[in-house]
Amino acid sequence: MVKPVVLRSREDLRAWCNNVRASHESVGFVPTMGALHAGHRSLAQASLARGLVTVASIFVNPSQFGPNEDFDRYPRDLDADLASLALEGVAAVFAPSVEEMYPAGDSTTVSVRNLTTPFCGRFRPGHFDGVTTVVARLFAIVGPCAAFFGKKDYQQVAVIRRMTTDLALPVEVVACATVRDPDGLAMSSRNRYLAPEARHRALSLARGLHAASAAYARGERDADVLRGLAHSEVASAMDRIDYVELGDADSLAPLAGQMLTKPAVLAIAAYLGTTRLIDNVVLGVDASPLGGA
Ligand code: PAF
Questions:
Q1: Which residues are catalytic?
Q2: pLDDT tens, residue by residue, 88-104
Q3: Would you call 126 exposed, middle or buried from its count of C-beta atoms within 10 A (0-12, 13-18, 19+)?
Q4: Which residue, judged by its Cα, is nearest atom 8 of ligand 1?
Q5: Domain 189-283 maps to which CATH number in 3.30.300.30, 3.30.1300.10, 3.40.640.10, 3.30.1330.30?
Q6: Which of 6, 43, 103, 135 is most open to solvent, judged by the fewest CB atoms within 10 Å of its CB?
Q7: 255 touches ligand 1 (CB under 6 Å)
């Protein structure tokens, strides 16, 4: 097992990526905030399966956390993350300081309109600006590459794709399937905050998505009925709901009061105590999180 080389500066990351391309190989990039789990590892595996020389970034990005969110307590364990990336065969890890990503005098924000309005955009003001600002910077440093993201963050992938197209960045954005525990719980770095009883209640997200997927498979197309099925599962177990909503799978435009005529994303964000969990399924495209429908 070869340990990934750890790069700390933008210059070192840029030089490393340029060297890969100079050797007539292509770069695969896996941006993360660390606290890696099987979902992240699946992104690295997808990159390596394409034969890409793979670099991951580990950076808990302060600009995407709100003032009352979990930036300070977000799990950080670089050694464990390096060990798990080494096992996958990741060649390099970019682990910059906050000052490296946001140097003194920093004044530039990258902001995507429209796609950032619904779902998490309504509840986490400024969150997506933080994501697009840091990802744009990372893409600018890494240069031409394929970059791998998980579909659990469905809206994030849509926003990053839009940004990449609009800014003509030389990056192929690859969306990978959500990885779940065998009981259906979507992998998340925040799952480690959950005590066993809370983890059990967190399964209501997958159950809610399953209820709607199963009804959709039986022919139900009324957005309010589908949403209601998911909502009642989640409301019965979670402490607080930010949203249970259906949106067009491409534009994310809300579909309340409509009959579905094309794929729609059913997305959930809800809390157990102070832990916020999200999950989604694309009706008409994805299998149910609990299998079957
Ligand atoms: O999905 C994440 O882990 C983060 O939002 C990302 C894309 C690494 C940007 O900080």
A1: 40
A2: 999 999 999 999 999 99
A3: middle
A4: 32
A5: 3.30.1300.10
A6: 103
A7: no
